[in-house]
Design brief:
By secondary structure, the chain is α/β, with parallel strands linked by helices. The chain folds into 2 domains: about 230 residues, Glycogen Phosphorylase B (Rossmann fold); about 170 residues, Rossmann fold, CATH 3.40.50. The chain is built from 16 helices and 16 strands. The protein has an 8-stranded mixed β-sheet with strand order 3-4-2-1-5-6-7-8, sandwiched between helices. Strands 13-11-9-14-15-16 form a 6-stranded parallel β-sheet, sandwiched between helices. Strands 10-12 form a two-stranded parallel ribbon.
């Protein structure tokens, strides 16, 4: 939300504490990721998670689960009680190490209140917990990777070798969040960090007067895994059990489904437009989808690990991104677009600035009627050359390369090899 950020910039705010640089020479010996998702129940396709699992191959890495930015209120926030229950389950796990990646994961204790006073209290609580965990994991010269603005007070209270602020979204525009307060926290991180890493050129341009060493990083893509799941020409492919016989056409979406992202009215219209074909939704249900699921041709698959996405999405005849055109989404750069392009099927998406580089490869539309018209056109597409061009557009965008650039900013010794995830 630009107005909120502007108010935070010009209004008097609590000055950031001077950050102490940890003693010692050489590269960092650990990275703490202050995440904006929860490892235990959110989709793990987010860029912060992709970076963290790769960094864990090179240096001890701790992923601190999100403490959020808004209070789930029953009757106002969708699936509010479910949000409380899942966070309590996450909290009960304490500190655990993921066996597959070697990444340490911790759900911190905090008070779910988001006034200016409570954000500072939670900052002190979180800093105390992270200080103990750093000592436990042997981190003497750690760097911090921060994705969640409400964790800014904790970062300020601890010494770091480097601080990188992953400026992935305009969180001040998040519905139900305290926009001026969140914008103020974002400004504190922009002035505190050594580097601000962006996925959105528009957001980077907006922050140009405040960001410390802004770097346009963008998103990566697991190109080989996704492209191989659907060979060009669509020869015989073995689809996962349970979805192989879904009525055609199959129009699909994969990723997190949140109330501030998904356009429910449009999703219902899509389901009705393609009936008796199938609207296949893959991902965690983080909002009330009862109206969508009431349509008889909608199939909902739960959250899948990244390695299982390709074989399921290979079934799509068309991939969709039915986002709301709100202030939050207009500043975002969805990871899934590159993933869709790597698989190769036609794509219809609600128009966002982040899609401009891919004009001509996707259908980018503004209204519901335009979306449905483009969907019909996409379902009739029969152009293998266009599928090839989609893949070529993202073939060089690899998550390992993104992680290597992040590692450089974090002062991590990092070498890309064939064994990285």
């Amino acid at each position: 939300m630009f107005d909120a950020f502007a108010m935070a910039v010009h209004a008097p705010t609590r000055p950031a504490r001077p950050r102490k640089i940890v003693a010692g020479e050489g590269p960092c010996d650990g990275v703490v990721f202050f995440g904006n998702v929860d490892w235990w129940y959110h989709n793990r396709g987010h860029s912060s998670v992709r970076t963290a699992v790769r960094m864990a191959k090179h240096v001890p890495s701790l992923f601190v689960n999100s403490i959020g930015m808004r209070i789930p209120v029953p009757g106002r926030t969708e699936i509010a009680w479910r949000r409380y229950v899942r966070k309590l389950k996450s909290l009960s796990k304490g500190l655990r190490r993921d066996r597959e990646t070697g990444l340490w994961v911790y759900t911190p204790f905090f008070v779910p209140k988001y006034s200016a006073r409570w954000v500072e209290v939670n900052g002190a609580l979180l800093a105390a917990q992270v200080r103990v965990l750093r000592r436990h994991l042997g981190m003497e010269r750690p760097s911090a990777f921060v994705s969640m603005p409400t964790m800014a007070p904790a970062v300020e209270r601890l010494p770091w070798l480097r601080v990188v602020f992953e400026r992935c979204d305009d969180f001040a525009a998040l519905p139900e969040a305290d926009a001026p307060m969140v914008a103020g926290l974002e400004k504190r991180l922009l002035t505190l960090c050594d580097y601000a890493a962006y996925v959105s050129p528009e957001l980077m341009e907006r922050d140009r007067h405040w960001a410390a060493s802004p770097q346009l990083i963008g998103h990566g893509v697991d190109f080989e895994a996704l492209s191989s799941s659907r060979p060009l020409g669509r020869p015989s492919v073995s689809f996962p059990k349970g979805i192989a016989d879904l009525p055609r056409p199959v129009v699909g979406f994969f990723g997190a489904m949140d109330d501030y992202r998904m356009d429910v009215d449009l999703m219902v219209k899509i389901a009705r437009t393609i009936a008796p074909g199938t609207l296949l939704l893959i991902g965690p249900e983080q909002m009330d989808l009862s109206r969508v699921k009431a349509e008889p041709n909608v199939r909902l698959v739960g959250q899948l690990s990244p390695d299982r996405i390709g074989p399921h999405a290979a079934l799509f005849d068309v991939g969709i991104i039915p986002f709301l055109r709100n202030e939050f989404n207009l500043q975002c750069s969805p990871v899934k677009l590159k993933e869709y392009l790597a698989i190769g099927f036609p794509v219809v998406a609600t128009a966002l600035p982040a899609y401009r580089p891919y004009a001509g490869l996707i259908h980018s539309v503004e209204t519901h009627d335009q979306f449905l018209t483009a969907l019909r056109q996409a379902l009739n597409e029969d152009d293998p050359d266009r599928s090839l061009r989609r893949r070529e557009a993202v073939a060089g965008d690899d998550w390992d390369q993104v992680a290597a650039r992040m590692a450089e900013m974090l002062a991590v010794e990092f070498a890309v090899d064939d064994n990285d995830l």
